[in-house]
């Protein structure tokens, strides 16, 4: 997808800030700032990957876009409408599958459809999307009978079944092995390209980000904000070539992204170490 081909902003994120209160504490002094002054424009049909150190607020931002959490400040608009809760325009895929163990693959996919469609139509649509993700013939299998990769395919089919304009994916391939991950990455690119979805995808993997993204948003250490946007000027068709990940283009992008990310990873580690030192001192009744 190229912005020049369609410069319509699907998602507009402006001045997003999110604070949380520390568990069991009520004073404002005990609040901590998770993300601050986040601004992004995601264009129609674009594949945006968000990359950042652990604890920088990537999932927090995705939850706000998904309507699962409200910002402390700022607003998000989708198609010029302010996000104030979940909606069928957004499908969400989580890292841990979130499948219902008492339902088979087919009826996990029908679940979000059942409130507004009859049983026959639900099952028809669900079978189509299970086929799309390569699971024809596995409709009757329960989650405990499926591999990790197959479970995630069911989760993707469920998210796609509501025909959302936007797909939100929170480290969806982190729990599967490397070979399965590569296959799922390729399948996801094909599916989202063919179905013209706008995608926001969270990962810790630079290689995964380069392979999937039209652009990569680098987040800072907490409080997370957007440090820089890196465009990936490589066609999706070219990415399927076997030598892509060993190409000079890939190496150049990897180096650029790591140089931007490395400083934030170091800062994030320092924040964790300082927090641990502070908590240890408090437990001992001392001070810093």
From TrEMBL:
Residues 11-242 form the ABC transporter domain. Pfam families: ABC_tran. The keyword Nucleotide-binding applies. GO terms for molecular function: ATP binding; ATP hydrolysis activity. This is ABC-type transporter, ATPase component. It comes from Methanobrevibacter arboriphilus JCM 13429 = DSM 1125. The keyword Nucleotide-binding applies. Signal peptide: none annotated. Keywords: ATP-binding, Nucleotide-binding, Transport. InterPro entries: AAA+_ATPase, ABC_transporter-like_ATP-bd, ABC_transporter-like_CS, ABC_transporter_ATP-bind, P-loop_NTPase.
């Amino acid at each position: 997808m190229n912005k020049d081909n369609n410069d319509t902003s699907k998602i507009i994120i402006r001045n997003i800030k999110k604070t949380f209160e520390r568990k069991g504490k009520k004073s404002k002094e005990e609040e901590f700032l998770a993300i601050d002054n986040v601004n992004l424009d995601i264009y129609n049909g674009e594949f945006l990957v968000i990359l950042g150190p652990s604890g920088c607020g990537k999932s927090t931002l995705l939850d706000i876009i998904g309507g699962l959490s409200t910002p402390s400040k700022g607003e998000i608009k989708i198609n010029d409408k302010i996000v104030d809760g979940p909606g069928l325009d957004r499908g969400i895929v989580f890292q841990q599958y979130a499948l219902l163990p008492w339902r088979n693959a087919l009826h996990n996919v029908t679940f979000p459809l059942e409130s507004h469609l009859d049983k026959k139509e639900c099952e028809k649509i669900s079978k189509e999307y299970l086929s799309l993700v390569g699971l024809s013939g596995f409709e009757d299998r329960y989650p405990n009978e499926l591999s990790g990769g197959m479970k995630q395919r069911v989760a993707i089919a469920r998210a796609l079944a509501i025909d959302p304009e936007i797909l939100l994916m929170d480290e969806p391939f982190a729990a599967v092995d490397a070979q399965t991950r590569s296959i799922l990455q390729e399948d996801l690119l094909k599916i989202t390209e063919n179905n013209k979805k706008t995608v926001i995808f969270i990962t810790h993997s630079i290689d995964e980000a380069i392979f999937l993204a039209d652009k990569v948003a680098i987040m800072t250490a907490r409080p997370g904000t957007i440090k820089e946007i890196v465009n990936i000027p490589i066609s999706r068709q070219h990415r399927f070539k076997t030598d892509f990940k060993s190409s000079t283009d890939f190496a150049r992008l990897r180096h650029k992204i790591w140089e931007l990310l490395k400083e934030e990873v170091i800062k994030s580690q320092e924040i964790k170490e300082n927090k641990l030192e502070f908590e240890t001192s408090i437990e001992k009744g001392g001070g810093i």
